[in-house]
């Protein structure tokens, strides 16, 4: 009975793969099986360092960094990010993060992590979008690992767009002003995992992690992003 109901729903409300756009069958969620199996997963460690770790090398307190997917701007997999940011489907982020957490967790990536912190949106952007997609990543990882997450520790005062209006040098020199730690006592002597949806140059994460370690020098920080984009 249950399956008949599901099949009927498929006919009435067809769902589509978030990558290739083909129709999903009953057992598939968000991605079709073909796109699921050919996911461009981040390659394993290169000379002992991941690409995300290389991009965050200036962060003194960095422990380790990983991304689930790695793709360029031609790739259809970039559409996943549009879905969770602009098309109102943040549940995709939770779904993929759970999957990533199971995989990455096998190598001990989450060992010793005390708290998960999503990269915050500015208050204005949060109001406009209605949700922070990074909170769904935190939630997905938290469900798999049992590590708690907190959204009220770091706030963001300026959007990237406002920052983009400035010159490159100015942007870097102003980087410290974007993120503020509002509950530093929650981070003292703890190993935190900062999670973001996509990393390109790493500058947003460097700003955030630098602000955190400046305010709480005893912190240890690791990073997980859903995607690393060229
Ligand atoms: Zn597909």
Structural description of this entry:
By secondary structure, the protein is an alpha/beta fold. Helices cover 39% and strands 17% of the residues. The strands form 2 sheets. Strands 1-6-5-2 form a 4-stranded parallel β-sheet, with helices on both faces. Strands 3-4 form a two-stranded antiparallel ribbon. Mean pLDDT is 90; it is low at 170-174. The site of zinc ion (ZN) has 8 residues, from helix 2.
Class derived from helix and strand content:
alpha/beta
Sheet bearing the most strands, described? Answer: 4 strands, parallel
**CATH hierarchy: architecture of the largest domain:** 3-Layer(aba) Sandwich
Q: What's the CATH first level of the largest domain?
A: Alpha Beta
Number of DSSP E strands: 6
What's the structural blueprint in terms of helices and strands?
Layout: H1 2-12, H2 33-37, H3 51-55, E1 62-71, H4 78-85, H5 91-105, E2 115-118, H6 123-129, H7 133-145, E3 154-156, H8 160-164, H9 168-174, E4 179-181, E5 191-199, H10 203-215, E6 220-229
Helix pairs in contact: 5-7
At a glance:
The chain has 230 residues and is an alpha/beta fold. The chain folds into 2 domains: 38 residues, no CATH class; 191 residues, Rossmann fold (3-Layer(aba) Sandwich), CATH 3.40.50.
């Amino acid at each position: 009975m249950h399956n008949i109901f599901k099949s009927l729903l498929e006919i009435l409300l067809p769902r589509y793969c978030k990558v290739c756009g083909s129709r999903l069958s009953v057992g598939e969620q968000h991605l079709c099986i073909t796109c699921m199996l050919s996911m461009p997963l981040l390659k394993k460690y290169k000379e002992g360092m991941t690409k995300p770790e290389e991009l965050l090398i200036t962060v003194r307190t960095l422990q380790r960094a990983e991304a689930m997917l790695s793709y360029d701007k031609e790739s259809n997999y970039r559409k996943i990010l549009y879905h969770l940011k602009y098309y109102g489907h943040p549940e995709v982020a939770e779904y993929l993060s759970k999957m990533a957490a199971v995989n990455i967790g096998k190598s001990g990536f989450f060992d010793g992590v005390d708290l998960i912190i999503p990269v915050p949106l500015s208050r204005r952007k949060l109001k406009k979008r209605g949700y922070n997609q990074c909170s769904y990543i935190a939630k997905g990882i938290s469900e798999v690992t049992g590590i708690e997450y907190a959204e009220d520790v770091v706030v963001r005062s300026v959007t990237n767009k406002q920052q983009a209006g400035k010159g490159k040098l100015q942007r870097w020199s102003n980087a410290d002003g974007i993120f503020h730690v509002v509950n530093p006592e929650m981070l003292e002597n703890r190993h935190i995992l900062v999670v973001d949806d996509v990393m390109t140059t790493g500058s947003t994460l460097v700003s955030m992690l630098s602000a955190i370690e400046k305010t709480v020098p005893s912190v240890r920080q690791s990073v997980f992003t859903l995607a690393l984009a060229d």
